Amino acid sequence: MDFLFPLLILALLVPMFFGIRKQKREAEKVASMQETLKVGDQVITTSGLYGTVVEVDDSSVDLEIAEDVVTTWLRQAIREVRNEETVAAETTEATDAPVEEAVDQTETRLTKD
């Protein structure tokens, strides 16, 4: 009975320790990624916006989100850098099969309230 309380405390603290350690490691990984941003990187922001880095400052990044449309973001808003394999796979995946709609589907879509 004397060992029950220390075991309970240990059972609660060990998972918390490992969770904090993992979270700290992920935060360091994201911070290093944000520090190594360079012009030409294709990125995704925390809000899900896809863009290409056109200028990098100490605390902000300018992203081209469409042709001749440039927006300014904080470095902390960049969630991930997309590599060329991912970009190429998404591009071919999107253009593989054209989407066709039947006439009744079109009528349903256009006449819905």
Automatic annotation (TrEMBL):
Residues 85-113 are annotated as: Disordered. It is a single-pass membrane protein. The keyword Membrane applies. The keyword ATP-binding does not apply. This is Preprotein translocase subunit YajC. Residues 86-97 have a biased composition (Low complexity). Keywords: Cell membrane, Membrane, Protein transport, Translocation, Transmembrane, Transmembrane helix, Transport. It is found in: Cell membrane. Belongs to the YajC family.
